[in-house]
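Structure, all two chains, one model.
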Amino acid sequence: MSHLLSWIVFSPLVAGLGILFVPKSKMDWVKWIATGVTGFGFFLGLLVWAQFNPLDTGVQLLEDHAWIPQIGVHYTLGLDGINFPMVILTLLLSFLACIGSFGIQEREKEYYFLYLLLTTGMLGTFLALDLFLFYIFWEVVLVPMYFLIGIWGGPRKEYAAIKFFLYTLAGSLFMLLGILALYFFEAPHTFNMLELGTRTYPLFFQQVIFLAFFFGFAIKVPVWPFHTWLPDAHVEAPTPISVLLAGVLLKMGTYGFFRVSYPILPEAAQWFRPAMAVLAVIGIVYGGFVALAQQDFKKMVAYSSVSHMGFVLLGLAAFTRDGFNGAMLQMFNHGVITGGLFLLVGVLYDRAHTRDLNVFGGLGARMSVYSGILIFFSLASLGLPGLSGFVSEFLCLLGTFPVYRTLTILSLTGIILAATYLLLMIQRVLLGPVNPKWEKLADIDRRELFTLVPLMIPILVVGIYPKLILHYLTPSLSALLTKLGVLIP
Amino acid sequence: MDAVTSLTYFVPELILLGTAFAALLLDLFIPKKEVVGLTGLAGVLAALAFARCPADAYPLFYGFFLLDPFSFFFKVAALLIVAVTLLAFLAYRPRTESVSFPGEFTVLFLFMAFALILMGSSNNLLMIFLSLEFVSVLSYLLTGFLKKDSHSKEAALKYLLFGSVASGTMLYGMSILFGLTGAIDLNVIHESLVSTAVPQGLVLTSLFLILVGLGFKISMAPFHMWAPDVYEGALTPVTAFLTVGPKALGFAVLVRLLHTSFLHLQSEWSAVLVALSILTMTLGNVVAISQTNIKRLLGYSSIAQAGYILMGLAVSNEIGIRGVLVYLIAYAFTNLGAFLCVILVSNHCGTDEIDSYAGLSEKSPFLAFALTVFLLSLAGIPPLAGFIGKFYVFSSAIQGQFITLAVAAALNSAVAAFYYFKVVRLMYLAPAPSREPVAHPAFLLIPLWIALIGTVVMGVFPNLFIQFVERSLIL
């Protein structure tokens, strides 16, 4: 199949437009169309996997067409070791979250249309190799997300939706200025990221542009102190949307560093390293402490994201092969693990209609399968060796230790905190005497299992044999490190 | 070129005038006013069909008008804008009193189309002033059309007073310029300013006095005060027209004037325009936040949009001037579209309060969707037309290294998104008070679809429009 990447990006959009014309009497079709197309997307992802050559550091499956010739904008999609895991992650999560969306009963047509538009936006962001195109997809993500939180969200949905929107929009506008500055810096003007990466720029220019991009990316990650939109958005969003927010959208920020800031502005990246490392550690520790203080299950998971994404940033700041590998792997793992945790919160909330950790207790006796899965994901999240979370966080720390010894030691607190809040959560929800109020709670059903089990497989497999993913990343990341002027032992 | 030869290049304008008089007569004898409106529309479309893009610059009527690709661009724009407005009128139901339209309106708008075309092709001070006044007088008439409505009367009076002062100031500036150079032709003025030793202070004074008059037309701060009241008081189709038509042509004159007569003083006027651009967009956006009437909200938003367009002119590099034209196309599609939605809603609800948009997505999913697209485009969200316009003016600022301007515009865009989303939020997130479906008259649906398709296509395939703009700027 030629134009495989275009198929991946645009098939959800086409199906989404088709959904708008489904007659009212056949409302059932809508979710099956959406599931079908996201499933098809995942299948295409497997095709890509089969064709992808991990040893090639260049761009594969490249598609390049002139789009707006007057200003040199190209429609460029391509795949390499940096976006390959992100694309697979997005395809997997958007398929599973789509099945997780079956609980949505009102305004289904609009929901699945926006959902598929969001999917196109996310995939496009990861696959675009032209800055103009990248920016367009980046922004396309915002609008459906606003509606998905705003219409189907929780009690404070409107506030959360507009806060998310304005925060990210403000960040991305600065990114747009940065893109333009890069474009005009040198003739021939181009938006091609790979081409821009081969040029050299004066340090001051690099620093200013790095900062402009930093606003855009840091708000998305989110890096402390730009994280305040995250708890609101994650908590208010409906379950499947929280999964995509935490699983995919946050990664767009760190992916931006790998794809744009680092290769195009290497000296500035060097210069900003210490600041990024400090912000990373603040995020790890702060996120952990705040998660510890939460009474709301979903809010706890949301803040744990701040903490876990801090490890990605730490690995990014390390400038070592282990650090980069860890950061990239952590992006993948965090997406899978936190996606699963949000799904689990959703399962509980659908039954109990509350997320207050204090009102539960003893659910282990009532919902045994659920408990097992919850414990599995929690252990993965807190970094139990043998599961994937451990590998990536360990690599991040291993990569950072020779460079920033104190900061690495400080960030270890984050792992202890993670163990604390996750185990406390397990204790409060699953253990102890059964609260009689929850006597009749039904265990997890087959559809929910179907969304969770596919996430457990990569957690286990990557935990035991991380090379499976790492060997796709390493060549591209090593090439990036060479470009950054780091000698690889 | 003498008058008789010129007439052969003047066919569209003659068609407009002929139709205008024919419509005036028809209005007397035909009770069905739709016929008059449709006749006017046919006239505008015929004029459009006869408009030809000239290969070269033709000075018509002894050089009083210039027929060049640039004026052709604005001729097409003016005719399309008037056509859309006429269609909107055919479907518009005024609330307060029954006025006999579209009879008189048709005539006024045909003259308006003629006046706008004159404005776009004026090449000397006299014609600039006359055509500008022609447009202004017609605008006052259109604004004050509801004789018994106090809002409308107030708006018209305000418009007239502000407009007169602005015109007087501009005329004063022109007289100084004429005194310095002894010429009214823009090119001759330029040659004379460059070749002879004229006091630069005086030249700049005259320029800024002229800028007052033109700034009034494009609702540039601090000469924007009339705009919100006029936009609120006028009938909605008139408002739609006023926010787009005279503004676009005001920019046409401004571009021509600054780039012919005052090109050598670019560094001076550029600095002033940067400041005014920042002021205009900031003021428009900040005040728009607290508006509760959709026409006022869009009115202030259109002031802010003028600020963004001014960016391109302030920088005035190659991409900046293109940006002005690209932005104007995007803005015309988007703003007209938004106002067409407003007309439909106000026909339905009988009010222009923003609260009446609550739950519109349930009452009319298509209308809510269309208005959302227009508002997103105004906010500059890709891939819609407004983003392409913003992209161009941002590009020009970055390329010209006007970093303050670029940052101010970026911050402004974030602020603007807030109030555009206020309307979107009501339409989609608030419950509908009633579920009565909104009527969609065909006369409005046609231009609405054109605006919608234009907004989306220009966002996704901007190259078609950019090509047109580049052809218009060849000379």
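Chain B has a mean pLDDT of 89.
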